[in-house]
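Q: How would the structure tokens look for this protein?
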Amino acid sequence: MKVVCTEQSQILAVRIADELGVQVADTRFARFPDGELYLQVLDPLDDETVIVGSVTDNDAFIQLMLLVDACETTTNTLVIPYLGYARQDKKFKDGEPVSARVAARALSRGVTDVITVNIHERDIARYFECQAHDLSLAEEVGEYLKTKGFENPLILAPDAGAAEFAAEVAAAGEWQTDYLKKTRISGEEVRMEPKTFDVAGREVVIVDDIIATGGTLATATKMLYAQGAAEVHAACVHGVFTGGAYVHLRSAGVKSLVCSDTIERACSEVSAARGIAAALKKC
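A: Here is the predicted structure in token form.
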């Protein structure tokens, strides 16, 4: 077995290979003058190959498909730590594509198994034309938070939909967990506060599977401080941080902000490698 990867997932791929005790195949990446992508796997492959690549943009999507095709002579397991197109998992308006279905079908060719990490909706697995497994990094996020020395923190989901993820994170430290509820004060004003617990004097950690623009999180942070929170921190699996979200959140008062290496960032303090390696051993 060998591991190959796209440019977007080099660090995570090496960590997965280290966990498995196997080699990472050297791969050359280039771009033609017309913008067309090119790659070549330079090392010979074994009978089994683990292909690792996050789909963070269109180039990453094409590069991952090219890499799968380059590994056509082996039995392939595809690891997609972050699948950007998963957020369009149904038709919200007439005439829209189901982008998650398009991506899943395209990435199913040439692989026997697919592993995703905290995909937007687990039902997306049905769109893959092979076996698909989704992992959650909630436990890893919780274990990381245990190292930060928080005293009786409140683990807070940004909405009811993320409450289950927050509860799984909180279980690592047997902490209290809650989610933000929104109350409309007027046509333009909305108040956000924890549904059950008072935040006065407490450290609060807002957790979610993904942080994209960070707009809601920034607003919530300011309101939590107004409600007496001692500190507000944030943690997520997928740190997209588009439109200057990282700076926006820090300027809003978020004391620390951490993500995993499904998207490789300077603040990727949580690794998906161990969980992915364990899943690969079961495939």
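The CA atoms of residues 260 and 271 lie 5 Å apart.

The longest helix spans residues 58-70.

Upvote if useful.
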